[in-house]
Amino acid sequence: MANVANVSIRNLKIQLGANAVIDALDLDVRAGEFVVLLGPSGCGKSTLLHSIAGLIDVAGGSIEIGGEDMTWADPKDRRIALVFQSYALYPTMSVERNLSFALRINGTPKAEIARRVNRASEMLQLGPLLRRKPAQLSGGQRQRVAIGRAIVREADVFLFDEPLSNLDAKLRTELRRELKQLHQRLGATMIYVTHDQVEAMTLATRMAVMRGGVIQQIGTPAEVYARPDNLFVATFLGSPAMNLLNGRLQRNGDSVRFRTAQLDLDVSAYRFERPPAEDLPCVLGVRAEDVRINAAINGANGHDTNSTQRGAVTLVEPMGNHQVIWLDYHGIQIASIDQDKTPVASGDAFGFSFDGAHISLFDEASGARL
């Protein structure tokens, strides 16, 4: 196996025509990490990956791989392996020939080729398929071959450009698990592009959420999910998306409260990034799993009026091991993940609650986390 390398990007600028697709971007990927670039279509994540691979010329900045400046190096000299969205297999070659093609072209000794092909086929369970042609393989098997072709390169950095997006849901789940196990076995540096938040959350040791060519936040999946840096990250991650309520923050001594026309919530325990201004317009966000449906209260007394509200059920989405209940709360749709699968029907009125320990607060003007 080749050395495991880090990737360091500084002040990167990529221009397509007159448009700056990426401008002044910094990113550090530590050796052995599995970093996922996550974002909507057109956010620049694939462009960033292709610049690391050397497939796109940069307009400014630097790209270092393993401590060496590779900004203008040819792709073949960057010690990287790239897996594309499409399988791009040679249709007339067997699986074994597809795996070994690049090694044969480079004049690698036959014994070394056999060792690498055997190792990759064992990792990816391709042994029984080595004599087959791509047309005789399923979609998942073809993508395994494409990944195996990268593994035999024994590269310093592995790059994946949405490799599972052409597969059905079952195959995506299987290959996602295999990719994670592969990373654990290889200990390799991997950078993976996807728009699928489930892939990002399950695969990444760290994830970078992108929008408009800018990294909005980078951190472990748990950190980014629990403490989003801004409203875009808060609403992009999560299914259903984070519930949002517009209101104002008001202070009275040590007490801080979030108030709307209908809600008065004590948020004094909230971990503010900076002290909030007095009477600040802000947005309260709460994840659906932190909205508690309480069928027993049904709007009755005996509970903290600061946290107990009432809404009418507009929709129930059964999800197997849980259900998502949508409530109309003064014209705002509030989603709650109900693990108990409480019997509900559209039109039912239920109490719901959340507390200051499980919320996010954002500046209304900038969208930044408070």
Descriptors for this entry?
370 residues; alpha+beta; Rossmann fold; 2 domains; six-stranded mixed β-sheet; 8 helices; ABC-type transporter activity; ATP-binding; cell inner membrane; nucleotide-binding; transport
> What is the tally of helical segments?
8
* Low-pLDDT regions: 296-307
- Please name the CATH architecture of the largest domain: 3-Layer(aba) Sandwich
**Portion of residues within helices:** 10-25%
Give the class from helix and strand content and strand pairing. alpha+beta
Please trace the helix and strand order, writing H or E for each element: EEEHEEEHHHEHEHEEHHEEEEEEEEEE
Mind describing the biggest β-sheet? 6 strands, mixed
**In angstroms, what separates the terminal alpha carbons?**
46 Å
Q: What gyration radius follows from the Cα positions, in whole Å? A: 25 Å
Overall average residue pLDDT: 89
Q: Predict the CATH topology of the largest domain.
A: Rossmann fold
- Spatial strand sequence of the major β-sheet: 6-7-8-3-9-10
CATH superfamily of the largest domain: P-loop containing nucleotide triphosphate hydrolases
Number of beta-strand segments: 20
**How many structural domains are formed by the residues?**
2
The CATH class label of the largest domain is Alpha Beta
GO molecular function: ABC-type transporter activity; ATP binding; ATP hydrolysis activity
Organism: Paraburkholderia megapolitana
Keywords: ATP-binding, Cell inner membrane, Cell membrane, Membrane, Nucleotide-binding, Transport
GO biological process, one term: carbohydrate transport
